[in-house]
Design goal:
Layout lengths: L11 H52 L6 E8 L2 E8 H8 L12 H31 L6 H38 L1
Antiparallel strand pairs: 1-2
Length: 183
């Protein structure tokens, strides 16, 4: 049995046009996927906003302000029992608790921003200290004229002392030799 294979030769401009068409199709698919992701995110934000608005409306419908719900607190101390019954505002003011200053915890964006800023500060301080260390090591000690003059005087004084010690030792050797010849 005999096989025959056939190869189709295409014009290079046709090949380039086909590749461009495939690239355009892929780019459009990416755009469509990004648009769908944006739509989903927008829908989630709107649902969260609607839930928040509904919860706020429910709170306002129950009594107007936060802290108006009835609260019962029982405190036992030294064998005496005291029961405080009233709204949350009244009970907290009786106990001396500042309830209006409750802070909500920081959100993830605030924590992330603080983490980035503190990391940047640590890096900047480290780089400044490293630069100062290198600069201090690179500086050569400055010799002023007074210090140079003082060093030269010390050098000449040391040389003078060395000459005197050499003369004394020479005199001692001479004296030792004379004494040894007499004996």
């Amino acid at each position: 049995m005999m096989r025959v294979s056939m190869m189709v030769m295409q014009n290079p401009s046709e090949v380039a046009a086909a590749q461009a068409a495939r690239t355009r199709g892929a780019a459009e698919d990416v755009r469509n996927a990004a648009e769908q992701a944006r739509d989903i995110a927008r829908a989630q934000r709107e649902a969260a906003r609607a839930e928040r608005d509904a919860a706020q409306a429910q709170r306002e419908g129950q009594g107007g302000t936060v802290g108006s719900e009835n609260l019962v607190v029982t405190v036992t101390r030294d064998g005496r029992t005291v029961t405080l019954n009233g709204t949350q505002d009244e009970v907290f003011s009786t106990l001396g608790i500042a309830h209006g200053n409750r802070e909500e915890p920081d959100g993830p964006y605030v924590v992330g921003a603080l983490a980035i800023l503190s990391t940047a500060m640590v890096l900047i301080v480290g780089l400044v200290l490293r630069h100062r260390g290198k600069r201090n090591l690179a500086q050569k000690p400055v010799r002023d004229a007074e210090m140079t003059e003082r060093l030269s005087r010390m050098e000449s004084a040391i040389e003078t002392v060395a000459v005197e010690v050499e003369r004394i030792s020479e005199g001692q050797r001479f004296t030792t030799r004379l004494l040894s010849e007499r004996a």
